[in-house]
Every structure is written in C-alpha cells, then in structure tokens.
Write a structure and sequence with these properties.
With about 400 residues, the protein is mostly beta strands. Helix content is about 5%, strand content about 45%. It starts with a strand and ends in a 5-residue tail after the last strand. GO terms for molecular function: G protein-coupled receptor binding.
Length: about 400
C-alpha cells in the first residue's frame, strides 16, 4: 500500500487566505538547504481588492511579548523575506513548480498560487531552551515561520483574522560519512609519587542517534601512590546562545556515578553505558531541545553542524555534546580530580525518503496546528498586527 500523501493546510479566520504545504521539516544539508515551498489559496471576494503576501522568517526570541526585562522583551528577526503572491507578479506557467505544488494547483483551482523561498545557509536550526515547570509564555528559542496575510500593501496594518501563521522547522540529520571514533588519554604526575597515573577513554564512534546507548571505555593504569576513589562519567550538553552576547549553558544530561575505585598499583579496563534522554531531564530549565510541531514530542537538541566559514555570531543557539570522565583521586592533602573530555555528535539518522511517485495520488489534508514546549501558552488570534509581528 502506498504511503498517504499528506498536505498540511491552515486557513485564516476570515477565509481570505489559506496556506498549503507538502512538508513541515526542511533539511539543512550544510552545503545547501531545502527550499520552502507551498501554495497560497485566496478568496478574491474576501480580499476586497487587497493584495496577498507570504513571509518566511527566522526569529530568535527570549521571553514572552509581555516579559519585562528592564522594560524590553528580547526578540530579534534573524532573517525575514516577504513576497507578493496575489495578484501574481508573473504567470504561474513561468515558474518552476514542485510536483506537490503542481498537484495542489490543479486540485485547488484558479485562485491558488505557488510560493517559493530560498533559505540562506547561515541560519540556525530550530531549537529552544526548556522552560522551568512553572514558567509560562514564550521562551528562549529559534523559530521558523511561514505567514500569509492580505493587506493594502506590504507595510500596512494587518488584521489577525486576515492572516495565518505556520510554524516549520529547519533540521539537520546525521552525516553519512563517519568521523573518527573519539579517543583521548592523559597522564598525571603527583607530588611525592615516583610514577604517574595514566587514563585513556574512548567511544566506539563519533555520531550517536537519539535514544541510542553510548558505551564509554575507560582504561586506567595507576602506577602512582594515590588511590582512585571514584569514577564519574557524564554526558554534557553545551548550548551556546550567540547573538547580542555569548552565553553558554552547560548541563549534564546523563551521569554514571560508578563508585569504582582503583588502588595504587592496580589497573582497570571497563565499559560504562550512558543514555542521554529528555525523559530524564523534563523538569530542568535550560536544557536545549529540538524544535517541535503539532502534538509531537521532542527530544534533546541535536548537535549543530556548522558550514565552514559561517560566522558563529549569527547562529542563534549552537548545541554540542561531550563525554566527561572524571577520576576522584585521594591523598594525604585531600582529594583531587583527573579528567578528560570526548566530543561527539548526537543526532537523528536521515529518514528514508519516499519518492513522490510512490505516494498516493489522493491528497490527505491535515490542519496545521502549532504546539509549544511544556508551559508555553498559545497566542490570541484577535486584534491588529503589523506584517513584522509574528
């Protein structure tokens, strides 16, 4: 049986404009980004001589619109592009259509018009920082949105009843080429000890998938006169928020406090298993999460892969991961620490692509709804809003 051909749609309250899109996730392949395309359906009677526009925006937001931080709600548009869709500036036949657009135009009729946006390759992916359980309103996040509206002109005031907003995602998947498996070692000399302590830590591969256990091999050769009292292994998530300033959030998202010891003159060769999951971190504020849509659950944020030469300052929220192996070493003067770090990637595998020829000819239309991270409230749909307000 062929997979269903799902099309996501959303219609404005006054029925003047509606947006239809064949997908909600747009992939950043590092060297290129999937174009954002869809179809805008207009009702000329409801438009009453107004024009119809489509806008694609990438916004960095910190706090709700009513949040008062020194009187300022932090919100910055990283990227915005607006195009007039109706009346069309060129004939439909002149543009190059995707197969989904072509099917939609034939199905929706003469009042349907295609739109197409190219995303720059220097934009961040959809990611947000998890709010605390009692927090409400919008929180720190990078969001992508397609908005359609009708107005006298592009800069005129827009009634929310005459506009529609669709959240989409920009995502990255694990690279097909496998990097070198991380391995690191260190040697520590101690005062009044003739011989050192040597430790080596390694992973089986560089990239792990969400929900996949991570095996960390730890080798210790303790020729010193100190005793290793404990071995602690953790997965740390580092979220760098880089826009106006550079803030870094480091959170341990999985910890193995082994209690293992290595006496003076002894050796150890052991594999520890860690499993970083959002399920074990849901109540913790500041954990970076992948952006989510509709009523789907999300997961810990995927590692950010940056195109070479792109300025990090424009990337919003960048996420990376590392394994930290820490030895607690005892001595006469108190304990000390010996530690190493193993950077790795945590990502989703690239999904199997379904060829458009394999999809059912009959389209299944699904309402395009927005969801929020736990504790986020929905926007009101009444009142006036300018095109720049999303």
């Amino acid at each position: 049986m062929s997979p269903k051909h799902i099309v996501f749609k959303k219609i404005s309250k006054d029925k003047s404009v509606g947006v239809y899109m064949g997908k909600r996730d747009f992939v950043d392949h590092v060297d290129s980004v999937d174009p954002v395309d869809g179809v805008l359906l207009v009702d000329p009677e409801q438009l009453k001589g107004k024009k119809a526009y489509a806008t694609l925006s990438c916004t960095f937001r910190y706090g709700g619109d009513d949040m008062d931080v020194l009187g300022i709600a932090f919100r910055r548009e990283i990227y915005v592009s607006t195009r007039q869709i109706y009346p069309p500036l060129q004939d439909k036949e002149q543009g190059i259509l995707t197969k989904v657009q072509d099917k939609l135009l034939r199905k929706l009729g003469v009042n349907a018009y295609p739109f197409f946006f190219e995303l720059p390759d220097n934009l961040p992916c959809s990611v947000g920082l998890q709010p605390a359980p009692k927090d409400v309103g919008k929180h720190c996040a990078v969001e992508f949105e397609v908005k359609a509206f009708c107005a006298e002109s592009q800069d005129a005031k827009v009634r929310k009843r005459s506009s529609v907003r669709l959240m989409i995602r920009k995502v990255q998947y694990a690279p097909e080429s496998l990097g070198l498996a991380p391995c690191v070692e260190t040697t520590r000399d101690f005062l009044m000890s003739d011989k050192p302590l040597h430790m080596e830590a390694s992973l089986q591969k560089q990239t792990y998938y969400h929900g996949e256990p991570i095996n960390v091999r730890v080798k210790i050769n303790n020729d010193s006169n100190k005793n290793v009292r404990n071995i602690i292994i953790s997965v740390e998530q580092i979220a760098n928020v880089v826009l106006y300033s550079s803030d870094s959030y480091m959170k341990a998202v999985a910890i193995e406090d082994s209690g293992d010891s290595v006496d003076s003159g002894a050796k150890l060769d052991k594999v520890y298993t860690l499993l970083p999951l959002l399920a074990n971190n849901r109540e913790r504020r500041g954990i970076a999460l992948d952006g989510k849509l509709k009523h789907e659950d999300t997961n810990l944020a995927s590692s950010s892969i940056i195109k070479e030469g792109v300025l990090k300052e424009v990337l919003g929220i960048m996420v990376s991961y590392r394994i930290v192996v820490k030895l607690i070493v005892g001595g006469i003067m108190g304990s000390s620490e010996v530690g190493v770090e193993l950077p790795f990637q945590l990502m989703h595998p690239k999904p199997d692509t379904v060829k458009e020829s394999e999809l059912e000819d009959e389209m299944v239309f699904e309402e395009f709804k927005r969801t929020y991270l736990k504790g986020m409230a929905e926007d009101e749909d009444e009142g006036n809003v300018s095109p720049g307000e999303h």
